[in-house]
Amino acid sequence: MEVSSLPISASHRAKLISAGYISISSLSSISPAHLARDLGISENEATGILKVASQRGGPERTIPSHHSIVDGAQTAWDMLHEEESCRRITTSCADLDDILGGGISCKEVTEIGGVPGIGKTQLGIQLAINVQIPLEYGGLAGKAVYIDTEGSFMVERVQQVAEACIKDMQEYDSFLRKDLPARQVNLQANDFLANIYYFRICSYTEQIAVINYLEKFISEHKDIKVVIVDSITFHFRQDFDDMALRTRLLGGMALKLMKLAKKFTLAVILLNQVTTKYSGGSFQLTLALGDSWSHACTNRIILYWNGNGRYAHIDKSPSIRSASAPYAVTGRGIRNLASNCKRVKLM
């Protein structure tokens, strides 16, 4: 049970979440003095919060002996079958899809990072559109949640990419039905826009609150197949003197997002910024939020420049090998480099 359900003042709930106390169980072994210090409140107020939390948490339920204490155990064979049947979201770049095993995998958290201007937001928008490709065209027929922390989401650009996606589907259909009359794609760009749920975030407390709310939101909107956070970093690089608190908050968010990906069989995409790190006698570019954050995601993709060309490199993944592929950001969205012009598969 989460602290957001406690019958306490809104300011106390916000302070609890900001300090990293997400679940009621996280308050079970803390003293009033410690909580008062973390929240910047009096000990009497902290005592009251802990009393309410203990009452709401209630006594531990007795579990009958014939029931398993921990649910959800599965065999490795089941896991392999799930992995093989898991759908993927195309990036609209055949070369990038190839190194990803067909696209971005559902049930996993994928971090995509790179320098400004490399195309992170463009790739996020492309995935929010491509997740909606109908089943008959090899897509997931899903919807998207887009959490924008930087204000970089541009509706005009989304509409442009949606229109290009419709043209791609028409071309794909004509390619498959060479000797048959062409079918009309019964979708408009506005249909794609209507299936993207947008959240504008202006502080790290809002970001935590929205991510805590996502489980309820997705339960009520069953077709959501991708959650994009652009970027996970922005509000956590400002106003944080307590790095231990920041690590705890980020860890809590990562666990929530992993749970969402698995529970709802959806892809979670976390866009990340870069920072500098001193290593081997020199400063080098690395993804932001530190080494501990690098373990929070299933897959990590680094976008970088090679001369005038954009490249994507799989830096970490338990299921696909490390590899790099070129891609381009065009008027139609993410595509293959013009010099490497393959037909782009939808899936």
Automatic annotation (TrEMBL):
Q: Which Gene3D superfamilies has this protein been placed in?
A: P-loop containing nucleotide triphosphate hydrolases
A single GO BP term for this record reads: reciprocal meiotic recombination
Q: What is its main location?
A: nucleus
GO MF term (any one): ATP-dependent DNA damage sensor activity
Q: Which InterPro entries match?
A: DNA_recomb/repair_RecA-like, HR_Repair_Mediator, P-loop_NTPase, Rad51_C, RecA_ATP-bd
SUPFAM superfamilies according to UniProt:
P-loop containing nucleoside triphosphate hydrolases
Q: Name one Pfam family in it.
A: Rad51
Q: Which UniProt keywords apply?
A: ATP-binding, DNA damage, DNA repair, Nucleotide-binding, Nucleus
Q: TM segments? A: none
Report domain RecA family profile positions: 85-274
Compartment annotation: Nucleus
One GO cellular component term of this record is: replication fork
* Name of this protein: DNA repair protein RAD51 homolog 3
Q: Which organism is it from?
A: Coffea arabica
